[in-house]
Design brief:
75 residues; mainly alpha; 3 helices
Length: 75
């Protein structure tokens, strides 16, 4: 009887593992349609601008300019 429970437990664990793996893999997958790619490009550009605005030179210049760090968006 214990062997049956062990086999069922292992089978259940494998099923749960595969479901979790497929779910996480689906979340990581990049979008394939054009709109999704455009959104990803905009997000990566915004992240790039944020990193650039937080460099030590940019922070120093903002301190000298009085905090005016507005820049027109690049297209």
């Amino acid at each position: 009887m214990a062997e049956i429970f062990a086999v069922l437990g292992v089978l259940f664990a494998v099923i749960v593992f595969l479901i979790v793996k497929l779910t996480l893999q689906g979340r990581r997958r990049r979008t394939d349609n054009f709109d999704g790619q455009q959104i990803e490009r905009q997000h990566s550009a915004e992240a790039r601008h944020t990193r650039a605005a937080n460099t030590s030179v940019a922070v120093h210049n903002r301190f000298i300019d009085g905090g005016n760090d507005w820049r027109p968006r690049k297209r």
